[in-house]
Write a structure and sequence with these properties.
Elements (H helix, E strand, L loop, with lengths): L3 E6 L6 H16 L3 E6 L23 H10 L3 E5 H6 L11 E4 L1 H8 L4 E4 L1
Parallel strand pairs: 1-2, 1-5, 2-3, 3-4
């Protein structure tokens, strides 16, 4: 059985509930000793830009920035879809710590190693 877990996230401020829950699940996976990857694509790539997630706070959950910081500090991988990032004209110089811009092949590589996956 694989000890890898992937959370694929496509939402940011367009659905802050899904964005928040994705990082709650990712942190739970880390706490369960899973090598965990959060893959940000489409609108979710905006979360990788410094300051973007700072004001997102869904009732009943920790603030999204705190969830993301805890995830990175815990050793979670954060991949950002390169074409999605470029399409939105975002600045690579403003990436949050721990974020890595990658192509789809890196996601496929991780998943092909038997990772369980959930999407938001």
């Amino acid at each position: 059985m694989s000890s890898k877990f992937c959370v694929s996230l496509t939402f940011a401020k367009n659905d802050t509930d899904k964005a928040t829950v994705a990082f709650v699940v990712a942190n739970a996976a880390l706490a369960s000793n899973q090598e965990t990857l959060v893959f940000l694509s489409t609108e979710a790539v905006r979360l990788a830009e410094q300051g973007y997630a700072d004001e997102i706070h869904e009732e009943g959950f920790a603030p999204l920035k705190q969830l993301m910081d805890n995830y990175i500090a815990g050793g979670g991988l954060l991949y950002v879809c390169s074409p999605c990032f470029k399409k939105r004209g975002l600045d690579e110089g403003r990436l949050i710590e721990g974020a890595l811009i990658v192509g789809g092949a890196k996601l496929v590589e991780f998943l092909s190693q038997g990772a369980a996956s959930v999407s938001y």
